[in-house]
Amino acid sequence: MKKRILIISCIAVFVISAVWVACLQTRPEKDMRLVEIISDGKVLYEIDLEKENDREITITCNGRKNIITIKDHEIYVSSAECPDHTCMNMGKLSDNGVPIVCLPNKLMIRYKESGGDIDAQT
Amino acid sequence: MHRPDTRRLTELSLLCAVSLIMFIIEMQLPPVVPVPGVKLGLANIITVYAVYAYNARDAVMIFFVRIIIGSLFSGNVIALIFSICGGLLCLFGMILIRRFTEINMIVFASVAGAVLHNIGQTAAAVFVMKTTAVIVYLPYLMLSGCIAGGFTGLCAWLIIKRIKKKQP
User: Fold this and answer.
1) d(CA B43, CA A116)
2) Phi and psi dihedrals of A49, rounded to 5?
3) How many CB atoms lie within 10 A of CB A27?
4) Residue A45 CB burial class (10 angstroms; 0-12, 13-18, ≥19)
5) Which of A86, B44, B68, B162 is the most buried (most CB within 10 A)?
6) What domains, with CATH codes, occur in chain A?
7) How far is B64 from chain A (nearest CA, A)?
């Protein structure tokens, strides 16, 4: 009996997360292009990607630098002084609402939502 | 089962060393999916094995030695917070599951542990980043956790089967 509960819950978690990922990936594009750059819980920049010229922003947190590049109305992390470089590998900020984060340097780049935080539900 | 203390100490140290080697090998692998926190978690093979082959106290000790020395090796101290939060939840879940099921459920226990690990990680990320927006990553983490946890559990199961054969 306990065996069955365990197997069923494992399969359920797998299916739910797969569906959830599929929902996130196919979420419709937003027309809003307002982007926030958040460091250590504080909003440092608010950028309208449609109007913004190509430039680079350097953000320092705990003595480590992240260089954010805006090019052709797209935003990405071009250089990071952290051990894992996940934020660089994430590429450009995508339209489906998944933010770019750099956990070691507490940096986050995301589309601004009108209702505060991005809701986890889809 | 009573074993001499020296033997137990040696076995536990050996397991710590093996899991650290796995941890370092894994650091050299390129990230598969560009989502923070997604990892194969090779070192967790030893954690799962320890939960099933030793008692809860030993498993917790191996886990702590591994993540503390591991974070020194990788130089990523902030990752330590995520590892501790995720790992403790994962260990707690797996120890609980081990009490109620037999050893043939090890793969599913490992999957459950991996998912709990991801939930703990995300909770730590919410705390560190001071925003709930990182919860968006949870489904990606859980999906990868199911796959990685299944793989880890399978490896641990194979180790347990082989070692049992050798021991008198």
Assistant:
1) 38
2) -65, -25
3) 14
4) middle
5) B44
6) 34-111 (2.60.320.10)
7) 21
Q: Which two tokens stand for residue A119?
A: 């809701």
Name which of B158, B159, B151 is nearest B39 in CA terms.
B151
User: CB pairs below 8 Å between A and B: how many?
Assistant: 108
Q: What is the pTM of this model?
A: 0.82
Q: Hey, is the C-beta of B106 within 8 angstroms of any chain A C-beta? A: no
- Per-residue pLDDT of chain A (122 residues), as tens digits, is 778 888 888 888 889 888 888 887 777 666 667 788 888 777 888 877 777 777 888 888 777 788 888 877 778 888 887 777 777 777 777 766 678 888 777 888 887 765 444 444 43
The answer to whether B16 and B62 are in contact (CB under 8 A) is yes
Domain B5-161 fold is Arp2/3 complex 21 kDa subunit ARPC3 (1.10.1760)
Angle between helices B44-53 and B77-100 (to 10 degrees): 30
Of A13, A17, A89, the CB nearest to B34: A89
Residue recorded with tokens 């399978």 = B154
Give the pLDDT of residue B113. 92
Neighboring chain B residues of A82 at a CB cutoff of 8 Å: 76
A101 contact residues in B (CB cutoff 8 A): 36, 125, 129, 134, 137
Nearest-Cα residue of chain B relative to residue A96:
B136
Tokens coding B118: 């991801």
